[in-house]
Design a protein that fits this description.
- The chain has a single domain, classed as Sandwich (Jelly Rolls), CATH 2.60.120.330.
- The protein contains ten helices and 14 strands.
- It has an eight-stranded mixed sheet. It has a four-stranded antiparallel sheet with strand order 8-13-10-11, with no helix packed on it.
- The chain starts with a strand and ends in an 11-residue tail after the last helix.
- Pfam families: 2OG-FeII_Oxy (PF03171), DIOX_N (PF14226).
- This is Isopenicillin N synthase family oxygenase.
- InterPro entries: DIOX_N (IPR026992), IPNS-like_FE2OG_OXY (IPR044861), IPNS-like_sf (IPR027443), Iron_ascorbate_oxido_reductase (IPR050231), Oxoglu/Fe-dep_dioxygenase_dom (IPR005123).
- It comes from Gordonia oryzae.
């Protein structure tokens, strides 16, 4: 069972909370977070709107197809994404900061652009813009506590996040299946940290332990599931390691709605490296060296790597990138 942390505890005993935060991330890479201060009504509201959107006819959802977005925004239909070259069985909307396209963009600067917002259900955009603001604040608070717990000033990472952070929100539905196992394949997140909201009583998320065992991570009422991304692995020299995780396709007759939020710095920000205290540095495992998954210290490079792999159709259609494997998930 993953540890559970309460963010309100940081107000009464900051040192104890920071130690627990550091140890949870070092040992597991994942934990539950309660006491975050986001009202239950706001949580219920975004989950309800997600359900309403996914209940729309396919033709209406396709009006904001990601295939029409060079910035990889909008709706991906069932089977429209890949992980490790295999088809993920989920539908989703990708939402990032609404910013103008960069003229003459190359590489990761193509990830900047406008969102594709659905016209229905009513209030969808306003609710999710409010949600992004709320979870961003929680994520920044966590990051400041992490910095302090690792021997750095609390604001050590602030500069990378104060100017045009490249956050990403996904609104996701996994339908039940009797002939597919992969909801989303095993992967690590490419950014700094992830706050995941999952519908109560849903199933499917699994986390890989240090010994290679996959364990189930069910939702807890009112709590986020939090995990660290590859950039925190870089920032800590591998003292914190991004953990592989996956979602199994739900059982037939059931489905799963989740809303992961990825806290990321600016596209061109290079994550600063923390000089760990000797007692922590001695426990560092080093940044994982995987030739099939290089980890870059500049966030945009790491994100571009992930996006063009996950959505080869968009990469090929808008950016002329020919995939090494199957050209399409569609």
């Amino acid at each position: 069972m993953l540890p559970t942390l309460d963010l309100t505890a940081a107000e009464t005993d900051g040192q104890a909370f920071r130690t627990a935060l550091r140890e949870a991330a070092h040992q597991h890479g994942f934990f539950y977070l309660g006491g975050h201060g986001i009202a239950p009504a706001q949580i219920d509201g975004v989950l309800r709107l997600a359900r309403e959107f996914f209940g729309l006819p396919n033709a209406e959802k396709a009006r904001i197809s990601q295939l029409d977005s060079p910035a990889f925004r909008g709706y991906s239909r069932l089977g429209g994404e890949l992980t490790n070259g295999l088809v993920d069985w989920r539908e989703q909307i990708d939402i990032g900061p609404d910013r103008p396209v960069v003229d003459g963009a190359h590489g990761y600067w193509n990830l900047q652009g406008p969102n594709l917002w659905p016209q229905r259900p009513t209030g969808f955009r306003e609710a999710f813009e409010g949600w992004i603001a709320a979870v961003s604040e929680v994520g920044v608070r966590l990051l400041r506590h992490w910095s302090a717990s690792l021997g750095a000033p609390a604001g050590y990472f602030d500069d990378a996040f104060t100017d045009r952070p490249a956050t990403l929100l996904k609104v996701v539905r996994y339908p039940g299946s009797d002939d597919r196992d992969q909801g989303v394949g095993a992967h690590k997140d490419s950014g700094v940290l992830t706050l995941l909201l999952v519908e109560p009583d849903s199933e499917g998320l699994q986390v890989e332990t240090l010994d290679g065992t996959w364990v189930d991570v069910p939702p807890k009422p009112g709590a986020f599931i939090v995990n660290i991304g590859e950039l925190l692995e870089v920032a800590t020299g591998g003292y914190l390691r991004a953990t592989r995780h996956r979602v199994r396709a739900p059982r037939p007759g059931t489905d799963r709605v989740s809303i992961p939020f990825f806290l990321n710095p600016a596209l061109d920000a290079t994550i600063p490296i923390i000089e760990l205290p000797p007692e922590l540095a001695a426990l560092s495992r080093g940044v994982e060296a995987d030739p099939d998954n290089p980890i870059f210290s500049t966030y945009g490079e790491n994100a571009w790597k992930s996006r063009v792999r996950a959505h080869p159709d968009v990469a090929q259609r808008h950016h002329g990138i020919t995939p090494l494997g199957p050209a399409s998930a569609y």
